[in-house]
Amino acid sequence: ERRPTTAPPGGGPLAMIVDPRVEAWARLQALALPPRALVDLLRRFGGAESLLAARPADWRRNAPPAVAAAIEAGPPPARLAASLAWLAQPDSDLVAWDDPDYPAALLEIADPPPVLFCRGRRELLGAPAFAIVGSRNATPQGIADAEAFAAALSAAGLTIVSGLAAGIDAAAHRGALAARGGTIAVTGTGPDRVYPAGNRELARAIADAGLLLSEFTPGTAALKQNFPRRNRIVSGLARGLLVVEATLSSGSLITARL
Length: 258
Fold this sequence. Notes:
The chain is of the alpha/beta class and 258 residues long. 43% of the residues lie in helices and 12% in strands. Helix 8 packs parallel to helix 9 (200-209).
């Protein structure tokens, strides 16, 4: 249960109902620091709260000038407000590196996300998972195959991971839900957005019976560069991967290579 806390300057009233540790991670994520620089700082300071509580001189001594200046300036107020507003909702959550249920498999990839925003069955992060990805412009046979494989693997006890895209991704999620198994949708938008819009009903079903997952702050639109980034999380969570109908230059094969 989230505890009331006093908001630091710029936090606003919404920070009053978000756990202080969760708020610290949300503030760090809203800074949009280069991932490797943030990883180095977290290792040196021991966590989000201790990093933000340090003195500006400590930041300047341990980080590149631009990174230290960004921390001192604080996150853009609108971005932080969007994150806190989303986290204040009872069905919204945040998983960070220092959480005991942060997926251990993600710590083994080259660029693990320090923060994940989630909605749904958080316990699925610790379940054995299998990814199914493929073309957005799938054939009817491809869609049928993806749904069938997802249903069978889900019934066998695997959580099905995909990216909530049109075509094969959506079919994989539907197959897992039909088998009453778990499914994780890793999105390339903020956790408050659904792309494509035609998958809104599917996203609601996943939030109820599975898990929606995103490393991007609430309010983040469907930016082209974010979708290849989410692929490393899809592959990182999964013990195996099935590609159904993909072109040689597709994001699905990026996921397979990862």
